[in-house]
UniProtKB/TrEMBL annotation:
It comes from the Eukaryota. This is ARHGQ factor. Residues 1-75 form the DH domain. GO terms for molecular function: guanyl-nucleotide exchange factor activity. Pfam families: RhoGEF. InterPro entries: DBL_dom_sf, DH_dom, Ephexin-like, PH-like_dom_sf. It comes from Illadopsis cleaveri. The lineage of its organism: Eukaryota, Metazoa, Chordata, Craniata, Vertebrata.
Length: 149
């Protein structure tokens, strides 16, 4: 939303060193490389003769690269969930839960969505049922039901 930031970003992206690529491509590039490494290592292993001394080294390298790949994906997924949780925290009002730490490394979102809640209002001489749209967040350890802003 900051116009000065947009202007600087557009100037950087139009620089010849960036080859007119958007900033997002530079942010995604390291992840693409990490995901391609196991594929590349596997291809190298397939091309290495099985009776070669280098074959065992190749298999060990593939195992280690795959381990690093799995760790990076796990950290990336956790960071993405944390970012989403921060985003949802800003979108919803939780007045009664201000001290409640919604974002936590031990908490992750399982499901979210909009539901229709039927609220029963019983008066002295009448009983009414009304519909109310609510938005819910089901985490691994807590269920939060709220209204959208």
């Amino acid at each position: 939303t900051n116009p000065a930031f947009k202007e600087v970003l557009s100037r950087i992206e139009s620089h010849e060193d960036c080859r007119n690529l958007p900033m997002i491509s530079f942010l995604i590039l390291p992840m693409q490389r990490v995901t391609r490494l196991p594929l590349l290592m596997d291809t190298i292993c397939q091309k290495t003769p099985k009776d070669s001394a280098k074959y065992e080294n190749c298999k060990q390298a593939l195992k280690e690269v795959s381990k690093v790949h799995s760790q990076v994906i796990a950290v990336w997924a956790g960071a993405a969930l944390t970012l989403q949780t921060h985003s949802w925290r800003l979108q919803c009002d939780f007045p009664a839960l201000q001290p409640f730490p919604l974002v936590s490394s031990s908490r992750w979102l399982l499901k979210r969505g909009e539901l229709t809640a039927y609220v029963e209002d019983t008066g002295l001489f009448s009983k009414r049922t009304s519909k109310q749209q609510v938005y819910f967040f089901l985490f691994n350890d807590v269920l939060i039901i709220t209204k959208k802003k």
